[in-house]
Protein 1
Amino acid sequence: MDTTLSIESDMEETKTTPEDIRLLVAAQISLKSIPTENQNIYYRRILKYIDDYLETHCNHHYIFDWVDINPETSKRICYCEHCFKEK
Ligand SMILES: [Zn+2]
């Protein structure tokens, strides 16, 4: 069985809710807590699937904010308030 095709076709048929997005973002944050060098190929694929899913299915709403680089410098960023993806 080709799991890649199965996952992709499921993604297109499934309706996404804000709760799905919220839970996938939480899962993504949790999975990213393992350093990249310690993630095997399957682990990275799961993260990539979540990333692709959020990119395509999130109803992105971008907002602007400032982050401190150091005590004197701030940087303006733009990110989605639902999935936190930066623009
Ligand atoms: Zn988003």
Protein 2
Amino acid sequence: MNERLRTLYKPRGRAGEFADASMATWQGCTHGCVYCFNHSRDKSKFRTAEEMAKACRPCGDVLRKLRQDIEDIKNGEGPWSEVEEGVPHILFQFTGDPYPPYEVDANITRGALKLLRDAGLSWDILTKGGLRAFKDFDLYEGTKSRFAQTVVFREDALRQKHEPGASVIAERFHAFKAARIHRIPTWMSVEPVCDAAQALAVIRDFAGAVDFIKVGKINEHEMEGDVDWPKFGIDLAKTLEEVGIRYYIKDSTKPFMPSGFPMDTREGGE
Ligand code: SF4
């Protein structure tokens, strides 16, 4: 990574499959997902979900750093010269969520989106904050930006158990509907799949509300053992064919899909 970049970066490893540029406006997270990499593994940054929630605050000096990164991009500096079609979509965000409850008043994410929009850049928002993102839908106009949400449970009782601080499932559905009304392209992340029946039900329920989906299994977590993955692969293939939505199967899940099943039906790789 070019040392000049201050807040934008190119994700590496498994994260690189998800986006080729990213940044964060908020650190910590109040959503408390039991499967979170940031507090549920031996080497996690936080010991508990509560500790991670207490650490939720804006990333230091993020808007000033972003202004400087944008200047570098305009000047053709940084790693973006390696990207064939220029600066790609910027994903918000791999760690934490761009729409914690505090964003409603703080408008840190809104400030970053304004800077990107004014610079002619585009972004992908990925959140579990539901309608908290709605206040910024006006900023998408004239950009190629997209709105995305993670949904892995259909039953809100399971969301309450596994993602207690995240928005209720019905709210996420309404957020997608609102994005459609604003003509904002949408996608849904069905990852990490940790309950096969719930994930398949989500795909059936949300297929008419989003433009495409990405599906990926849970990894390196005790919940991984709760799912019969070869069976899930067969059921997932049938469900995707039934609902007819465009999709991308994440690398970790591809080995469980039926032989010859297409893994990416998005237009131009999106
Ligand atoms: S929303 Fe993401 S960062 Fe926040 S607790 Fe859930 S998995 Fe972790």
